Recover the amino acids of this structure.
């Protein structure tokens, strides 16, 4: 009977145990992942760029329908990398990770350099954006939602 009396206390101590994660350290991981991802894009490494998205990721670009899933996203990356003069780069500004440690976001600034004519002239479009990251069952962070839109007040990503 005395042992049964202890069960609620054991359960309470288990439920209230501090299983917290270091949110700041995890946010720094997301900042570093975002920087690595941007570098892969600058290197035009389609495989590496694609590896940062989860299988069911969604990209929401300005004036375009949402793009869902790795096959569609990978095709877009491949096609973009084949455009002469095309360039994309971003710089993470700040990050946050949930108390549970399984969901986070990174605020970014990015730019797209795109050709405007057949002579090789380009224009640069600056944006603000949010990368939403989810920790996968294997412990790796993957981007699940990538959304951005134009911001005429930005003229540099630093």
């Amino acid at each position: 009977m005395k042992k049964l009396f202890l069960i609620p206390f054991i359960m309470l101590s288990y439920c209230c145990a501090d299983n917290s994660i270091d949110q700041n350290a995890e946010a720094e991981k997301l900042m570093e992942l975002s920087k690595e991802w941007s570098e892969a894009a600058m290197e035009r490494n389609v495989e590496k760029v694609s590896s940062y998205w989860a299988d069911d990721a969604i990209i929401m670009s300005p004036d375009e329908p949402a793009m869902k899933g790795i096959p569609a996203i990978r095709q877009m990356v491949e096609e973009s990398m084949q455009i002469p003069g095309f360039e994309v780069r971003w710089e993470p500004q700040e990050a946050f990770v949930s108390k549970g440690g399984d969901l986070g976001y990174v605020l970014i600034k990015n730019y797209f350099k795109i050709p405007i004519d057949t002579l090789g002239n380009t224009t640069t479009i600056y944006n603000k954006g949010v990368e939403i990251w989810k920790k996968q069952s294997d412990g790796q962070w993957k981007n699940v939602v990538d959304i951005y839109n134009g911001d005429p007040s930005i003229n540099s990503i630093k």
About this structure: The chain has one domain: 21-150. Residues 21-150 form a domain with the Nuclear Transport Factor 2; Chain: A, fold (CATH 3.10.450.50). The mean pLDDT is 91. The first strand starts at residue 53 and ends at 60.
